[in-house]
Amino acid sequence: MTLQQLYYVIVISETGALSKAAEVLYISQPSLSGAVQELEKELGFALFHRNGHGMALTNDGMEFITYARQVYYQYETLLEKYGKTGKRKKKFGISTQHYSFAVKSFVEMVKQFNTTEYEFAIRETKTREVIDDVHTSRSEIGIIYLSDFNRKIITNLLKANNLEFHKLIDCNAYVYIWKGHPLAQCKSIRFAQLADYPCLSFEQGSESSFYLAEEILSTENYPRTIKANDRATMLNLMIGLNGYTLCSGIICEELNGDDYLAVPFEADEDNPNSRMEIGYIVKKNLIMSQMGELYIEEMKRYLKQYEKEEVINDE
Fold first, then answer.
1. Which of 48, 53, 46, 38 lies closest to 11, judged by CA?
2. Is residue 230 helix, strand or coil?
3. Both ends of the chain: CA-CA distance in Å?
4. For residue 284, which of 20, 148, 189, 220 sits 20 to 30 Å off, Cα-Cα?
């Protein structure tokens, strides 16, 4: 088994077809097919189902690819730090819950590199997929939050996937609405005041636990709820339906626009779980890439500025 074979299998799994993989790898299809067959013979099982529509991983192949990505990612990281510069683009990806500060920090990090030499990816996605992406090395870093409600479940998930959580910031919950909302002039908003408006939340999948929800108070019985898959749709629903969502209050107007505002959520005895701990997850014993280190620096810089503004506003 060679690193080259691992890379071949990874590319085939990503493209879904031998012909497309051969184009990406700049080798002939027979050579690529032969290399994969040789690896499968060594392993003693098939990695792919082959049919007229392409190539899909077998169950054994899906398990194998998880470890292959981890090994090859660490190899690429070592090359980046200690090897000679090659022609192949270096890859860096993150997966995150829907935080505009995570996107803004990603933008600032990417600006520091020549994008003709690097392949960057940012994935705003479901909580479970954030964890899976980091576990399988599809992404180097994931951004999620913990609270008193979900901490035990999320921590167990991270432990089971050999991941560790690093805190970036603690923050109180806010009600995120548009400036024309009937409650926009309130200094704070209680849960009872929201009963007449639809609660907007990010779709987590039909089989997902409410412990994986991005929004706090996920177990509450909301009279009106609407789910969305992306931030842009959610912002449109805020204006069109006077919807709201519960968030960290860390809003990047440069990306989201200035038509929205975050009003402090006023906790009560029935709804006390309003504290969020946002952080990043990585694989244990990870050798952090240069891009990863800079990305974390950008997030810390942005959040530090946010904390300063919060102190000024409180005064």
1. 48
2. coil
3. 63
4. 148
Give pLDDT tens digits for 278-292. Answer: 999 999 988 888 899
Q: Token digits for 86? A: 């090659």
Q: DSSP letters along 88-125, please?
A: SPEEEEEEESS-HHHHHHHHHHHTTS-TTTEEEEEEE-
pLDDT tens for 11-29 read 898 888 888 888 888 889 8
192 CB burial (10 A radius; 0-12, 13-18, 19+): exposed
pTM of the model: 0.72
- The answer to whether the CB of 228 falls within 8 A of the CB of 202 is yes
Q: Using CA atoms, how far apart are residues 51 and 17, in angstroms rounded to an integer?
A: 10
195, burial (CB in 10 Å: exposed 0-12, middle 13-18, buried 19+) = exposed
243: which DSSP letter? -
Strands (DSSP E) contained in 112-232 are 118-124, 141-146, 163-172, 174-178, 189-190, 199-202, 225-228
Could you tell me which of 87, 137, 136 has the C-alpha nearest to residue 288?
Answer: 137
**Conformation bin of residue 44: beta by default, left when phi > 0, alpha when psi is -120 to 50:** left
Q: What is the pLDDT of residue 189?
A: 93
If 0-12 CB within 10 Å is exposed, 13-18 middle and 19+ buried, where does residue 26 land?
exposed
CA angle 124, 295, 156 (to 5 degrees): 60
Helix (H) or strand (E) holding 38: helix 29-43
**109, 81 contact by CB (below 8 A):** no
